[in-house]
Amino acid sequence: MTTTPQENLLDWLRDAHAMEQQxxxxxxxxxxxxxxxxLLKTRIVKHIEETRGQQRQLVGCIxxxxxxxxxxxxxxxxxxxxxxxxxxxxxxxxVVKGAMAGYVFENLEIASYTVLIEAAExxxxxxxxxxxxxxxxxxxxxxxxxxxxxxxxxRAFLERxxxxxxxxxx
Length: 170
Ligand code: MG
Ligand code: FE
Description:
The chain has one domain (5-162): Up-down Bundle (Ferritin), CATH 1.20.1260.10. Helices cover 81% and strands 0% of the residues. The protein has five helices and no strands. It has helices at residues 5-33, 38-64, 72-88, 94-122, 126-161. Helix 1 (5-33) packs antiparallel against helix 2 and helix 4 (94-122) packs antiparallel against helix 5.
Protein backbone atom coordinates (compact mmCIF):
# COMPACT_ATOMS: atom_id res chain seq x y z
CA MET A 1 0.00 0.00 0.00
CA THR A 2 1.27 3.45 -0.88
CA THR A 3 0.39 6.91 0.33
CA THR A 4 0.77 9.95 -1.93
CA PRO A 5 2.39 13.19 -0.73
CA GLN A 6 -1.08 14.80 -1.05
CA GLU A 7 -2.64 12.19 1.24
CA ASN A 8 0.10 12.61 3.83
CA LEU A 9 -0.22 16.37 3.57
CA LEU A 10 -3.98 16.24 4.19
CA ASP A 11 -3.50 13.90 7.14
CA TRP A 12 -0.86 16.19 8.69
CA LEU A 13 -3.01 19.28 8.10
CA ARG A 14 -5.78 17.56 10.08
CA ASP A 15 -3.27 16.78 12.85
CA ALA A 16 -2.23 20.44 12.86
CA HIS A 17 -5.87 21.55 13.07
CA ALA A 18 -6.41 19.25 16.09
CA MET A 19 -3.19 20.61 17.61
CA GLU A 20 -4.42 24.20 17.19
CA GLN A 21 -7.73 23.34 18.86
CA GLN A 22 -5.77 21.89 21.75
CA UNK A 23 -3.60 25.02 21.78
CA UNK A 24 -6.68 27.25 22.02
CA UNK A 25 -8.13 25.24 24.94
CA UNK A 26 -4.83 25.32 26.84
CA UNK A 27 -4.18 29.01 26.21
CA UNK A 28 -7.74 29.95 27.20
CA UNK A 29 -7.50 27.95 30.44
CA UNK A 30 -4.21 29.71 31.26
CA UNK A 31 -5.45 33.20 30.40
CA UNK A 32 -8.68 32.80 32.38
CA UNK A 33 -6.78 31.78 35.52
CA UNK A 34 -3.90 34.27 35.41
CA UNK A 35 -4.41 37.18 37.81
CA UNK A 36 -1.07 38.54 38.95
CA UNK A 37 1.02 38.20 35.78
CA UNK A 38 -0.55 40.76 33.41
CA LEU A 39 2.28 40.76 30.84
CA LEU A 40 2.09 36.98 30.40
CA LYS A 41 -1.69 37.10 30.27
CA THR A 42 -1.69 39.80 27.57
CA ARG A 43 0.73 37.84 25.39
CA ILE A 44 -1.33 34.66 25.79
CA VAL A 45 -4.54 36.49 24.86
CA LYS A 46 -2.81 37.81 21.72
CA HIS A 47 -1.73 34.27 20.82
CA ILE A 48 -5.29 32.96 21.31
CA GLU A 49 -6.37 35.33 18.51
CA GLU A 50 -3.45 34.18 16.34
CA THR A 51 -4.34 30.54 17.07
CA ARG A 52 -7.95 31.07 15.95
CA GLY A 53 -6.67 32.61 12.73
CA GLN A 54 -4.35 29.61 12.23
CA GLN A 55 -7.32 27.25 12.63
CA ARG A 56 -9.25 29.16 9.94
CA GLN A 57 -6.27 29.08 7.58
CA LEU A 58 -5.78 25.33 8.12
CA VAL A 59 -9.47 24.66 7.44
CA GLY A 60 -9.03 26.60 4.19
CA CYS A 61 -6.09 24.38 3.17
CA ILE A 62 -7.90 21.17 4.17
CA UNK A 63 -11.04 22.12 2.24
CA UNK A 64 -9.03 23.10 -0.85
CA UNK A 65 -7.59 19.57 -0.79
CA UNK A 66 -11.10 18.14 -0.52
CA UNK A 67 -10.96 17.08 3.14
CA UNK A 68 -13.07 17.84 6.19
CA UNK A 69 -12.06 18.67 9.76
CA UNK A 70 -14.74 16.91 11.78
CA UNK A 71 -12.60 13.99 12.90
CA UNK A 72 -12.12 11.98 16.05
CA UNK A 73 -8.64 13.48 16.33
CA UNK A 74 -10.20 16.84 17.08
CA UNK A 75 -12.19 15.35 19.93
CA UNK A 76 -9.15 13.54 21.31
CA UNK A 77 -7.27 16.84 21.29
CA UNK A 78 -10.02 18.59 23.22
CA UNK A 79 -10.15 15.86 25.85
CA UNK A 80 -6.39 15.94 26.26
CA UNK A 81 -6.41 19.71 26.66
CA UNK A 82 -9.16 19.45 29.25
CA UNK A 83 -7.18 16.87 31.24
CA UNK A 84 -4.07 19.07 31.10
CA UNK A 85 -6.06 22.12 32.14
CA UNK A 86 -7.51 20.36 35.17
CA UNK A 87 -4.12 18.92 36.09
CA UNK A 88 -2.46 22.33 35.93
CA UNK A 89 -4.94 23.89 38.33
CA UNK A 90 -3.81 21.80 41.27
CA UNK A 91 -0.19 22.98 41.16
CA UNK A 92 1.03 25.65 43.55
CA UNK A 93 3.43 26.90 40.85
CA UNK A 94 0.99 26.73 37.94
CA VAL A 95 2.16 30.01 36.39
CA VAL A 96 5.73 28.68 36.04
CA LYS A 97 4.68 25.20 34.91
CA GLY A 98 2.18 26.76 32.52
CA ALA A 99 4.80 29.02 30.93
CA MET A 100 7.15 26.03 30.60
CA ALA A 101 4.42 23.87 29.06
CA GLY A 102 3.57 26.73 26.71
CA TYR A 103 7.16 26.92 25.52
CA VAL A 104 7.24 23.15 24.92
CA PHE A 105 3.93 23.28 23.03
CA GLU A 106 5.09 26.16 20.79
CA ASN A 107 8.12 24.09 19.85
CA LEU A 108 5.87 21.14 18.97
CA GLU A 109 3.98 23.54 16.70
CA ILE A 110 7.23 24.77 15.13
CA ALA A 111 8.22 21.14 14.39
CA SER A 112 4.77 20.41 12.94
CA TYR A 113 4.82 23.39 10.55
CA THR A 114 8.41 22.65 9.52
CA VAL A 115 7.21 19.19 8.42
CA LEU A 116 4.08 20.65 6.79
CA ILE A 117 6.07 23.19 4.75
CA GLU A 118 8.25 20.40 3.34
CA ALA A 119 5.23 18.14 2.69
CA ALA A 120 3.35 20.95 0.94
CA GLU A 121 6.39 21.66 -1.26
CA UNK A 122 6.66 17.94 -2.11
CA UNK A 123 2.96 17.83 -2.98
CA UNK A 124 3.29 20.94 -5.14
CA UNK A 125 0.79 22.80 -2.94
CA UNK A 126 2.24 26.31 -3.02
CA UNK A 127 -0.71 27.92 -1.22
CA UNK A 128 -0.46 25.55 1.77
CA UNK A 129 3.32 26.05 1.95
CA UNK A 130 2.72 29.82 2.09
CA UNK A 131 0.09 29.49 4.83
CA UNK A 132 2.40 27.30 6.93
CA UNK A 133 5.32 29.71 6.47
CA UNK A 134 3.19 32.53 7.79
CA UNK A 135 1.86 30.46 10.73
CA UNK A 136 5.32 29.23 11.77
CA UNK A 137 6.44 32.86 12.17
CA UNK A 138 3.75 33.37 14.82
CA UNK A 139 4.77 30.16 16.61
CA UNK A 140 8.47 31.14 16.61
CA UNK A 141 7.58 34.61 17.93
CA UNK A 142 5.51 33.07 20.76
CA UNK A 143 8.21 30.51 21.61
CA UNK A 144 10.87 33.27 21.66
CA UNK A 145 8.69 35.48 23.85
CA UNK A 146 8.08 32.70 26.38
CA UNK A 147 11.76 31.73 26.53
CA UNK A 148 12.80 35.36 26.96
CA UNK A 149 10.21 35.99 29.69
CA UNK A 150 10.59 32.74 31.65
CA UNK A 151 13.24 34.27 33.96
CA UNK A 152 10.98 37.28 34.66
CA UNK A 153 7.96 35.06 35.37
CA UNK A 154 10.10 32.89 37.64
CA ARG A 155 11.43 35.89 39.57
CA ALA A 156 7.95 37.37 40.02
CA PHE A 157 6.65 33.98 41.19
CA LEU A 158 9.50 33.56 43.70
CA GLU A 159 8.91 37.06 45.11
CA ARG A 160 5.17 36.49 45.47
CA UNK A 161 5.78 33.05 47.01
CA UNK A 162 7.93 34.57 49.75
CA UNK A 163 5.35 37.31 50.47
CA UNK A 164 2.72 36.21 53.04
CA UNK A 165 0.22 38.75 51.63
CA UNK A 166 0.52 37.75 47.97
CA UNK A 167 -0.91 34.85 45.99
CA UNK A 168 1.82 33.43 43.78
CA UNK A 169 0.40 30.48 41.84
CA UNK A 170 -1.56 32.42 39.25
MG1 MG B 1 -0.51 27.57 16.70
FE1 FE C 1 1.23 28.59 18.94
